[in-house]
Amino acid sequence: MNIGIIGSGLIGASVAKLAIAAGHRPMISNSRGPESLAQLAHSLGCRAGTSEEAAAFGDMVLIAIPFKNRFQLPVSTLACRIVIDSSNYYPHRDGRIDELENGITTTSELMQCILTQSRLVKCFNAILARDLSLHQLPHGVHGRRAIPAAADDVEALNVVADFVDTLGYDVVKLGSLRESWRFERARPGYCLRLDAFQMKQILTANTRASWVEEGSWRL
User: Fold this and answer.
1) Is residue 92 within 8 Å of residue 132, measured between CB atoms?
2) Closest to 150 measured CA to CA, from 172, 167, 127
3) Which of 7, 27, 65, 202 is surrounded by the fewest CB atoms within 10 Å?
4) Where are the alpha helices (DSSP H) in 120-174?
């Protein structure tokens, strides 16, 4: 499968590395242009392009950029494609967004408001990049780590779950984008090493008042 990756930071590079190992073909991109990615692309063994080129290349496209940069995405090129949204909201970086602070909406719903024609799936936001290359296990192995995901498009969610499985992780499907708040930043279960049963238990038990200490998941 061709995987376009918009954003060449830690998550984007980690997914690209795992995708290559699983037999997929990624193209990485960033806002500075493919020339700035020559060394990274060479070390990974993949192609680099512009954001537009990565969007056009991918059968599936991963967005791994700061949430504040969502308005810079190639919206028309991403239309009708399965788009994986791995973004998280950090007020000090992205600016305060009252709808998120007040629990009125979710990061993925705001992303869908921009990518109105894309088949959006929230995934990869609740695992640290350093863990992505450490915890993968073959399908069916007991204790395999799970990654949460949500989407309004059930077929797109299943395609992403199958892709994540090839990378070495199970997926816990949490329902629609409306439910993706359950695994946003600083929620119980966020970035913890849990199997599918444990992950589902914690995330489904979350309430809007459920929070953990900022940064505790990095310890």
Assistant:
1) no
2) 172
3) 202
4) 129-132, 154-167
Q: How many angstroms separate the CA atoms of 130 and 136, rounded?
A: 12
CB-CB neighbours of 100 under 10 Å: 19
Phi, psi of 11 (to 5 degrees): -65, -50
Residues in the chain: 219
Parent domain of 212: 2-218
Alpha-carbon span 83 to 125, nearest angstrom: 13
User: H or E element: which one contains 48?
Assistant: strand 47-49
Domain containing residue 168: CATH number: 3.40.50.720
pLDDT tens-place string over residues 131-185: 999 999 999 999 999 999 999 999 999 999 999 999 999 999 999 999 999 999 9
DSSP β-bridge partners for residue 2: 25
